[in-house]
Specification:
GO terms for molecular function: imidazoleglycerol-phosphate dehydratase activity. Keywords: Amino-acid biosynthesis, Cytoplasm, Histidine biosynthesis, Lyase. The chain is built from four helices and ten strands.
Length: 194
């Protein structure tokens, strides 16, 4: 089937090249300049069963904000482009993911409308050298550009690393379910998902 996308995004703050494959090439190569984000995107691709090649360079001498947001934009655009008219996809996906003391719930709808609900509270302000508030910005940029509804709820958890990792894995698993091909119709009574 070959649902793929190539996204290049160049601004005064970041340079991003992204290649996404939902069906065939499942190679994963991630280099963002931020070790923790590389780790999260690697496990996102693995648990999402997608091919993801991403090279990003940003103004990290300032902070990670632009890098995280612009990667979220590029990844969202990649999914939007790769899904095309969304013919045959399940459309909805969800996952409840445990990671030690943490439990995260995710639901996604590739409806053509963007919305993010991010109900996550942290006990620390950073994980490694990354401000935890950047993960909300990342997923907002993703949802806006993938044109999907994305709900992320931390039911409980204390360890910041576990919380963030559980979020990325749960989002990946929910997306994996939603983009699966189950038929050949547009999954909407409107007959279109824009």
């Amino acid at each position: 089937m070959g649902r793929k996308a190539e996204i290049i995004r160049v601004t005064n703050e970041t340079e991003i090249k992204l290649s996404l494959s939902l069906d065939e090439d499942k190679e994963i190569l991630i280099s963002t300049g931020c070790g923790f984000l590389d780790h999260m995107l690697n496990l996102f691709a693995k648990h999402g069963d997608i091919g993801l090649k991403l090279k990003a360079k940003g103004d990290s001498h300032i902070d990670w904000h632009h890098t995280f947001e612009d990667i979220g934009i590029a990844l969202g655009k990649g999914f939007y482009e790769a899904l095309g008219d969304k013919k045959g996809i399940v459309r909805y996906g969800f996952f409840l993911l445990p990671m030690d003391e943490t439990l995260v719930e995710v639901a996604v709808d590739f409806s053509g409308r963007s919305y993010l609900n991010y109900d996550v509270k942290y006990y620390a302000g950073k994980v490694g050298d990354v401000d935890v508030e950047l993960f909300k910005e990342f997923f907002r940029a993703f949802a806006d550009n993938a044109k999907c509804n994305l709900h992320i709820v931390k039911r409980y958890g204390e360890n910041t690393h576990h919380i963030v990792e559980a979020i990325f894995k749960a989002v990946a698993r929910g997306i994996r379910m939603a983009v699966e091909i189950k038929g050949d119709d547009i999954p909407s009574t409107k007959g279109v998902l824009e």
